[in-house]
Amino acid sequence: MGSSSLPRPPLHTVLPPLILGTATFNTQYVTDPLSMPYRDIVAHAIDLGVNCFDTSPYYGPSEILLGSALDALMNPQPTDANPSPVPLDRSSFKIVTKAGRIVMNEFDYSPAYIRYSVLRSLQRLHTSYVDLVYCHDVEFVSPAETLAAVRELRRLRDEEGVVRYVGISGFPVDVLCSLAEMILAETGEPLDAVLSYGHFTIQNRALGLPWIAPDFDGNGAGSPLARLKAAGVGVVLNASILGMGLLTNRGIPVDPEPELANDSPLAKWHPSPPELRLACKKLAALAATEDERLESVAIRWALETWARVGAAADIGVCASTQSLKVGATVCGVSSIAELQETVAEWRGVMALLETPAVAEEATLARREKVLALVEGKFWPSLGPWLDYVWASPGPGFVNTRREEDRGTAPDDGVVAPYDIPSRPPSPSNLTACNPSNPILLTPTYASRVNI
């Protein structure tokens, strides 16, 4: 039931250029993710042609909610209005998850825990394999730990068939580059993918420099993307194009305490300094002078510019045709309206990339308007905060995982079914769909998730 018998073509021919991120299915972004229309969001994404989903066990109930939504589509129940629903085939969409980060300051990259995490993800996601797994936020652990985790993920790929592609994710770009180079040197095999977040936005362009500089001569030697390409990385993905909520009309308040009463959890955990939050808040006012929302401008600029940079640096994925390669982006949404807005902007981008000679005048005009706003107003307004990067991990970080717990997997029944050779696990005999199962659902969610 795993993926070992399935072909593994290059990842750039497999991943789509627009991926729905579900970090927003989490209390870090919304007060109550269980009240979100998560099933409708996932179903509508499929209808709109968005057929790849990014999640993580670190994102609170995200895997559980995404798995519930996908299971409802793969095993639809007849209704009076639709007595013979057509099941969604697992091969028609991709699932991407992560492993190694447990909670905010707790990490375990040991092979035993990585295996446990992946197998638990399979149960939560109602699938027998995951298309791509990242080591989550690699800057918080040692290079040796990352190497061990990558080796285990590849073993899960080759021996157990539950993983198809392997990558790493994280915040500091130089760390991602160094680890990709180290993994190639140590194993002789490059990473399939690297996920970078928050480093190619209208505020922080670091991942794409010098490719977007006005005087760029086509030689990106020494740049992050050139290093990743030289390390053999198949695909570099860009995520958090709104800066984890920083680049929105609402923005992030400077003082977290008063905001707690306003049902916005971002202020308390977001790593941005107060001055950067204020600088980004000014961008919303500038956008309003042009009858634009900051979110729309930020999404459009990042989607289009990264699509072009990904193509130029040759770290993108195939778009609608095998001959068109573009940079891939992970976009998180928390409502149908946000999903529709993102897809509409992406379609405008693709219209310009696929058939620029016949692009509609309105599409061209929007592109010019966005560029004028970003380059002519936003960047000058940001001043010293343009391309500012906060430290990750922050000062004083300590991994709170107890030494005696590292290298062990919880004895909670997750691993056992996979250790019985005569009974390979499949979605039909996994127990993740039981809301009363304490293995997979914390008490907070167990009584409320309709799975």
From TrEMBL:
Pfam families in the record: Aldo_ket_red (PF00248)
Domain of life (superkingdom): Eukaryota
A GO cellular component entry from the record: cytosol
GO process annotations (BP): dehydro-D-arabinono-1,4-lactone biosynthetic process
Every NADP-dependent oxidoreductase domain range: 17-344
Positions of transmembrane segments: none
InterPro entries assigned: AKR, NAD(P)_OxRdtase_dom_sf, NADP_OxRdtase_dom
Keywords carried by this UniProt record: Oxidoreductase
GO molecular function per UniProt: D-arabinose 1-dehydrogenase [NAD(P)+] activity
Listed name of the protein: Aldo/keto reductase family-domain-containing protein
Organism whose genome encodes this protein: Cercophora scortea
